[in-house]
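Fold it.
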Amino acid sequence: MQHLFLCFALCNGLSVRPGDDGAPEYAGASPDEIALAEAAGTVGISLVSRRPGRRGDMMKVVMEQVDGDETGNNYTQSELPYAVLDVVDFNSDRKRMSIIVKKQGRGNEPEILCFTKGADNIMTPLHTTGLSSIEQQHLNEYSCLGLRTLIIAPKSLESNFAMRRLTSPRPRRAR
């Protein structure tokens, strides 16, 4: 579940600033992205800053955890910095958005993650192992109710694969 809410916090085009009460306030073109980032915050995974850097945006996520007993005495809060390596924005053709981030580690090898979120009819055929029968049943039930569904795909990338992707020439569309 952690990757789900981490995707909601990171895979978006939102700007963030501290509100009057100290909680993050999000602004962006998509009310869906704002709602997803706010949902992540309710479970303790909050995007608290996003600022431009020389090589891409820097994002900071605060992760809150309560470990141990139900009294909450073992509450921890950690700040996790992420460097944005690449973003493939949502558009009407792709119907999905991807972001590649590098999790800045303390003394250990940085972790490179790719998060993709998108419409179920676009993401399902891309899923390498396919959806389970129960997952497909839930999608069908939600569709019959007229609900929109979103599929999240997290992937850990090897550093050399990510660097090849980022340094390879990409075709550009004429504007």
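Strands lie at 15-18, 24-27, 45-51, 58-66, 75-88, 96-103, 111-119, 150-157.
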